[in-house]
Amino acid sequence: MPLDIRERFEAELAEIPDDLFDRERFVGGVGPADADVVFVGEAPGANEVEQGEPFVGNAGRVLDSLLEDVGIERKQVYITNLVKVRPPENRDPTSDEIEAWRPVLWAEIEAIDPAVVVPLGAFASREVVERDAPISDLRGETYERDGYVVVPTYHPAATFYDDSVKAGLQEDLERVAEMAGR
Ligand code: URA
């Protein structure tokens, strides 16, 4: 990460109010600073906090297997979360949390300047495409936000409950792989 961007990222991190920044539950983004694709999840869970990396639990295994299917190497993409502190009891992130962490997410995206941003699930997708709609309506399309190409898709954990979600997620990731020139 170039120094000026790293400084901006650190500056945004310093702005997070103390009550929303429990360092014991914090998980930062992981991946190369020049990645072509940035994935944005919702918030870390227990496994992520334990290992200090996003998407390393059950949802991560689904993501890994789909990435492999479409020919994207996990180590070549950047993976982060909308909210970077694990919410208590894995509850949904609140609007205060999303608002507080928003500048950090955009500092990351601008630092990496990827070819494609892929928000996973409703919370991240609504944030990145700035539309309040169900994820089933948002996915399947390509959007533009601040000059970035955005392909919202289902959260990998949604495949646990509905088989058709997996097919949709795979279809979206195939488009992402094409856009990223894989
Ligand atoms: N779910 C998310 O949204 N993010 C993670 O890092 C793990 C699971």
TrEMBL record:
Single Gene Ontology MF annotation: uracil DNA N-glycosylase activity
GO biological processes: DNA repair
EC numbers for this chain: 3.2.2.27
Class of the enzyme per the UniProt entry, highest EC level: hydrolase
Domain Uracil-DNA glycosylase-like: 28-174
InterPro entries, sorted: UDG_Type-4/5, Ura-DNA_glyco_family4, Uracil-DNA_glycosylase-like, Uracil-DNA_glycosylase-like_sf
Catalysed reaction, written as an equation: Hydrolyzes single-stranded DNA or mismatched double-stranded DNA and polynucleotides, releasing free uracil
Name of this protein: Type-4 uracil-DNA glycosylase
Keywords: 4Fe-4S, DNA damage, DNA repair, Hydrolase, Iron, Iron-sulfur, Metal-binding
Protein's UniProt keywords contain Hydrolase: yes
Keyword 4Fe-4S among UniProt keywords: yes
SMART domains membership: UDG (SM00986), UreE_C (SM00987)
CDD domains: UDG-F4_TTUDGA_SPO1dp_like (cd10030)
Family: Belongs to the uracil-DNA glycosylase (UDG) superfamily. Type 4 (UDGa) family.
Organism: Halomicrobium zhouii
Ranges that cross the membrane: none
NCBIfam families: UDG_fam4
